[in-house]
Amino acid sequence: MTDGLFTVHTPEGTETPLVVEIPHAGLHVPVHFLPELLASARAIGRDADLYVDELYGAAHREGASVLIAGTSRYVVDLNRAEDDIDGHSVAGGPDAHSPRGVVWRNTSEGDCVLAAPLRSEAFEERLREVYRPYHARLAALIEQKRERFGCAVVLAAHSMPSVGRASHADRSIPRADVVPGTVGRSSADPLFIDLVDAHARGAGFSVAHDDPYKGGFTTRHYGRPAGGVHVVQVELARRLYMDDVTFRRRSGRPGHALRLQPRRGGASRTGIATISGGEYVADGRRRLTPARGCARPWPRRARGARAFNRLFAMDSADLSSRLRPEGGTLRRLAC
After folding, report:
1. What is the dihedral of CA 40, 42, 43, 48, to 10 degrees?
2. pLDDT tens-digit readout, 209-267
3. For residues 164 and 183, what is the distance between their CA atoms, to the nearest angstrom?
4. Distance between CA 48 and CA 53 in Å, rounded?
5. Which of 35, 37, 193, 315 has the least C-beta neighbours within 10 A?
6. How far is Cα of residue 55 from the mean position of the Cα atoms in its chain?
7. Minimal CA–CA distance to 54: which of 309, 253, 263?
8. Residue 328 predicted with pLDDT over 50
9. Which spans in 203-267 are helix H?
10. Stretch 119-128: mean pLDDT, rounded?
């Protein structure tokens, strides 16, 4: 379903508590915002999370709800707080240094994005037309999951330059393949953080938690494990699926899904047999205690684990067999 400047894919088949939000894959600049921009088309593409919407293109068929922004982050950055501005990006803004806040005034290479600081009315227009409707829909999706399952699990899907750029603290330093950002493991229960880690490592990818990205606005604002909302921001190094310079896909053809490519001889399939922080018990249902998030039971198919596995391993038909003891009864996770 397309709603203005973003798209929502509703779950197909058995619904899961998972919400995949993709805030930076968009390239669109509404025509009435064009006069305020100096950035080139190439800069818009370079600072977008190109193809991330394709990488998670099958998530809704695994039961996840998917929210995809279509607007360029040069219009408004949906992974920043509304007040993340300075006087050089918005006229009358605070005396701060925020060149890439909710409104970017510099590209990641240090070039100008804006022709001049935005008037307060122009800034408010961007928030009203793009930012607030997006977050209203994201908040609604999260609440729907909480009402149905007792918890929501948000995967904030991003990609990152494979090597730190001129404006980054890790300039010229190669980055890990996968960077889960959880603000020091505070935005999600360890169950979900460790699940992402295990899948990535099992598929042959290198992993660095919170380095160089700890998580943006979505992670910090919505991640409330005690309240049943778990958020993990996942940054994928672009070398895994595209050329950082030419922007061309490394794999996949028109009409075919992109696949992540481990740099080393990692496995193309993986399943989770154990997860740090819990153990499996014969019961047929999967439950987290109220203090850790999901107070209500999840169905026999271990929905959350299955959805995460499909998204990261891309091919995980063996997950169910790995979760079943020899007696054949699906086990649950007791935390």
Report:
1. 130
2. 999 999 999 999 999 999 999 999 999 999 999 999 999 998 654 444 566 766 554 43
3. 20
4. 11
5. 35
6. 11
7. 253
8. no
9. 217-222
10. 98
DSSP class per residue in 34-72: GGGB---HHHHHHTS-TTHHHHTTTGGGGT-EEEEE-B-
Residue with tokens 């996840």: 64
Contact 181, 330 (CB under 8 A): no
Whether the CB-CB separation of 277 and 190 falls below 8 Å is answered with yes
Supply the pLDDT for residue 170: 79
Domains of the chain: 2-267 (3.40.630.40)
Among 106, 98, 90, 1, smallest CA distance to 47 is for 106
pLDDT of residue 303: 42
Please tell me the predicted confidence (pLDDT) of residue 7: 97
Token pair for 154: 């948000």
Structure tokens that stand for 89 in this block: 């990006």
Q: Which of 20, 8, 16, 22 is nearest to 62 (CA)?
A: 16
Question: Which run of H or of E encompasses 191?
Answer: helix 190-202
Q: What are the tokens at 208?
A: 């660095």
The whole-number pLDDT of residue 168 equals: 75
Q: How far apart are CA 91 and CA 87, in angstroms?
A: 5
Q: Which of 63, 39, 193 is nearest to 113 (CA)?
A: 39
Q: Is the model's pLDDT at 305 over the cut of 60? A: no
Other Cβ atoms less than 10 A from the Cβ of 128: the count is 10
Instruction: Quickly tell me which residue has 């908040």 as its tokens.
Output: 139
The pLDDT of 327-332, averaged and rounded, is 32
Q: Alpha-carbon torsion 67, 314, 180, 271, what sign?
A: positive
Has residue 143 got a pLDDT over 50?
Answer: yes
Q: What is the DSSP letter of 100?
A: B
Nearest to residue 220, comparing CAs of 193, 190, 182, 179? 182
pLDDT score for 71: 97
The torsion region of residue 215 among left (phi > 0), alpha (psi -120 to 50) and beta comes to left
